[in-house]
Amino acid sequence: MKRQDNKQRILLICASFIMALTIATPLSAKQFSALVFTKTAGWQHDSIPAAVSAVNYLSQLHDFSAVHTSDANAFTSENLGQFDVVVFLLTTGDVLNEHQQSDFQKFIRSGKGYVGVHSAADTEYDWPWYQGLVGRNFVTHPAVQSAKVNVLDSGFPGSEYLPSRFLWTEEYYNYGPEHSDSLNYLLSVDESTYQPQAEWDEVKSSGMGDFHPLAWYQEYDGGRAFYTGFGHLSTSYTNAMFLSHLYGGIYWAATGKGIEQ
What we know:
This protein has helices at residues 2-24, 48-61, 77-80, 98-109, 128-134, 240-255; strands at 33-37, 65-69, 85-89, 113-117, 138-140, 145-151, 165-170, 174-175, 184-189, 198-200, 203-205, 213-220, 223-228. The chain is α/β, with parallel strands linked by helices. The protein has one domain (54-255): Class I glutamine amidotransferase (GATase) domain (Rossmann fold, 3-Layer(aba) Sandwich). The strands form three sheets. The chain has a nine-stranded mixed sheet with strand order 2-1-3-4-13-12-9-6-7, with helices on both faces. Strand 3 (85-89), helix 4 and strand 4 form a beta-alpha-beta unit.
């Protein structure tokens, strides 16, 4: 009996020690939290599932939390308050009502971040504040083609993994004029390396000319905004260069860190 009593006493001591360690050593927190938003009110990209999976992979690789939704009811001040960045991942059309827009504005103005991917530039045309946030509107695009892309700023997070000039296959958007005067450009496409002309009913475009931007970032209305025109093809979301580019934008928008001067 004494031997069994001693054994139980030892087990209780060990259990108490483990409990004390658990209380004294909190679980490590994720470095930031992202809300991944994929609502569409127009064209819906087939690449959305691959895009969501890619962001989930990045969240595991880089130790941040990612919550996916296509429900605009997530845009309340109370819910948004738990996130550091909202990723408009292949959104299209009018996706937020007036109350949701107001709460999202408060989110950005509190110092938080926005990331827009590809058709995020084809979103909320009637909301001037959002147009300033995303920077430029989508106008048209030609067929998917390969073209040469130039890196304009290698000091932005993730850009260090990109060659100064590389071949990429994409649905290259033609964009309208700037809606913000604080855009910092990261990538451009060389229109001499593909056919930029596009015609959609009465909308015609011969491209954007000598300067055709693809990605940019800015500080906007108290917060941060990053946009990339990449992301049309599902297969892009398995490409290491693109994933480093995408994560760099998410990381900077969420934290404001990583830019080399």
